[in-house]
Amino acid sequence: MIDQAYALRNLVKDKANYDDDCLVRQTPYTVAITSGKGGVGKTSLAVNLAITIAGMRGGARLIDADFGLSNADVLLSVTPRYTLEDVALGRVAPADAWTQYSNGLKLISSGSGLDSMANIDGVTSVELMKAMLDSASGGDIVIIDTAPGIDDSVINLLSHANEVLIVTTPEPTSITDSYASIKVLTQANPDSQITLVSNCCANPSQAGAVANGLDVICRRFLGRSFQRHEYIPYDSAVGRGIVAQKPFITQYSHTPAASWLRKLAIKLTERERQWQSSRTIEALVEA
Ligand SMILES: Nc1ncnc2c1ncn2[C@@H]1O[C@H](COP(=O)(O)OP(=O)(O)OP(=O)(O)O)[C@@H](O)[C@H]1O
Ligand SMILES: [Mg+2]
């Protein structure tokens, strides 16, 4: 078994770089970040995760798909030349629309205060994402920050992602809104892979209580729950990073939030690796 897997991997390695003879073309692994309630830490998580993943493996992209109210660029203190609106209107090709942030990270934002973006429908938002993903490199991990809530434009995006991180805080309003997101997403895509991220918790046991409570409700009323649970502590470094427009993962890298976020980044990259290799093996078996 091990030998066979080894041989398959080597065969794939030989066929890498996506020439037309390649049995399976790598596609980017997409991680969409959302929440039921607003202001729970999605953008902060998205930006810092993207930077961490880029630093760990290169090949990370960040798409700020909080249509109409994008602010990832503000957190990173960059002024992108193009936005998703430029792509949607054909002013720039998707591949040329990315802004280079660091060696391994490129980003695109949907802009802020743009009517056309704020009112984008679910179908167009997905088409736009597909165009951007096509222009990314096959082995990239793409982090997509979304608006909160259960609008079509959000849920459609989520239902096409490889995995969805639903961010909640311990507040009851945030937990009940997370349930609403899980419910609507499950209706749109029963196979969606959901990770609950309990953010701003005092300690792991508070995060555990949040997850258990939500899990019970999801199982009872939806007949399913989220697949995984992650924890990010409340940490003043997160807010300080935002005020300074310097991501806490680089500016305050020894803080508790940074340490838990790195653990999450490692798990995401591992899942991406497994997903890419299972796709490859499937294609080889079918060939
Ligand atoms: N782990 C944390 N510890 C302390 N504060 C946090 C943490 N995570 C987020 N925050 C704070 O929460 C606030 C909202 O963060 P952020 O903008 O990332 O949320 P959001 O979910 O993207 O909001 P929106 O729904 O408006 O897009 C910020 O002030 C940020 O400093
Ligand atoms: Mg946000």
Q: How would you portray this structure in words?
A:
The protein has one domain: Rossmann fold, CATH 3.40.50.300. Helices cover 52% and strands 16% of the residues. The chain has 13 helices and 8 strands. The two termini are 19 Å apart. 44% of the residues are buried. The structure holds adenosine-5'-triphosphate and magnesium ion.
Mean pLDDT across the residues is: 90
- In N-to-C order, the SSE pattern is HEHEHHHEEHHEHEHEHEHHH
The oligomeric state is: single chain
The low-pLDDT segments are 1-21
CATH class: Alpha Beta
Highlighted features:
287 residues, alpha/beta, eight-stranded mixed sheet, 52% helix, disordered N terminus, binds adenosine-5'-triphosphate
Quick summary:
With about 290 residues, the protein is α/β, with parallel strands linked by helices. The chain has a single domain, classed as 3-Layer(aba) Sandwich (Rossmann fold), CATH 3.40.50.
Topology record:
Blueprint: H1 2-14, E1 29-34, H2 42-57, E2 60-65, H3 72-76, H4 84-88, H5 94-97, E3 99-102, E4 105-109, H6 115-118, H7 122-135, E5 141-146, H8 152-159, E6 163-168, H9 172-188, E7 194-201, H10 204-222, E8 228-233, H11 236-244, H12 248-251, H13 256-286
Parallel strand pairs: 1-5, 1-6, 2-4, 2-5, 6-7, 7-8
Antiparallel strand pairs: 3-4
